[in-house]
Amino acid sequence: MTIPVRAYRQVPAEPLRGKVVIDTLNYDPARLGHVPEIDAGNTPPHLLLQTHLPGSHVVKAFSSIFHRHLATLGRPEGAPDRSTLPIAGDSDDAKRAVATLIDSLGYDTHDVGPLAESRRFAPGTPAQLAHLDPDGMFAAPGRPVTAAHLITLLTAHGAS
Ligand SMILES: NC(=O)c1ccc[n+]([C@@H]2O[C@H](COP(=O)([O-])OP(=O)(O)OC[C@H]3O[C@@H](n4cnc5c(N)ncnc54)[C@H](OP(=O)(O)O)[C@@H]3O)[C@@H](O)[C@H]2O)c1
């Protein structure tokens, strides 16, 4: 699911029942619009889609990498500069399926835990910004992020 968060109510729940849904969303009200229920503190942004799709297996993934970098940082399995992407979700089977997909794109995955733990790679956290060169931001080539480095960044922002 890659749409502005403000459009989440238009995602049809019934056809997605029982399916794995990859949630790439980052709440960025300044760029993509406000969501009143988030701003009121009723639902944390990282749980919004799963709350809207209670019958689906939502896995947070791809939210920590700019799409242009996703296209250039993929590497074969075992390459020293292969990157690791964080994933989180409440279904182990769904996370396994998403990890297989991500592996096919040239990335390892690190399972951060239940969906609620995706707060550790929420917008603005070190893990979410890891691929960005602070000097060039989105214009610069993305930086590879190894598993060890990712875990250090995630740990800095929550329990191990
Ligand atoms: N861009 C990235 O590299 C990136 C990386 C990580 C996470 N994300 C997250 O992914 C989400 C989307 O970001 P984006 O940059 O891809 O945004 P975007 O380009 O503004 O929108 C993505 C898609 O959403 C569709 N869309 C817009 N309004 C819609 C609506 N009301 N109902 C259904 N579809 C609608 C657009 O379709 P039309 O073009 O047909 O309007 C477009 O194809 C955000 O939460 C963002 O934080 C993006």
Ordered list of secondary-structure elements with their pairings:
Blueprint: E1 20-23, H1 29-32, H2 36-39, H3 48-52, E2 57-60, H4 67-72, E3 84-89, H5 92-104, E4 108-111, H6 147-155
Parallel strand pairs: 1-2, 3-4
Antiparallel strand pairs: 2-3
The structure holds NADP nicotinamide-adenine-dinucleotide phosphate (NAP).
Residues 2-5, 7, 10, 24-26, 28, 32, 62-63, 66-67 line the site of NADP nicotinamide-adenine-dinucleotide phosphate.
Keywords:
single chain; alpha/beta; Rossmann fold; 11% strand; globular; binds NADP nicotinamide-adenine-dinucleotide phosphate
General description of the model:
The protein has one domain: Rossmann fold (3-Layer(aba) Sandwich). Helices cover 26% and strands 11% of the residues. It has six helices and four strands; from the N terminus they run βαααβαβαβα. A four-stranded mixed beta sheet has the order 1-2-3-4, sandwiched between helices. α5 links the parallel β3 (84-89) and β4. The site of NADP nicotinamide-adenine-dinucleotide phosphate has 15 residues, from loops.
Structure in a nutshell:
The chain is an alpha/beta fold and 160 residues long. The protein contains six helices and four strands. Residues 2-5, 7, 10, 24-26, 28, 32, 62-63, 66-67 line the site of NADP nicotinamide-adenine-dinucleotide phosphate (NAP).
CATH topology: Rossmann fold
Q: Indicate the CATH architecture.
A: 3-Layer(aba) Sandwich
Number of strands: 4
> Would you state the CATH class?
Alpha Beta
Give the name of the CATH superfamily.
NAD(P)-binding Rossmann-like Domain
How far the N terminus sits from the C terminus, by CA atoms, comes to: 28 Å
- The global form is globular
H/E topology pattern = EHHHEHEHEH
Number of helices: 6
Helix percent reads: 25-40%
If strands are numbered along the chain, what order do they take across the biggest sheet? 1-2-3-4
Secondary structural class = alpha/beta
Overall pLDDT confidence: 95
Report on the biggest sheet: 4 strands, mixed
How much of the polypeptide forms β-strand, as a percent range?
A: 5-15%
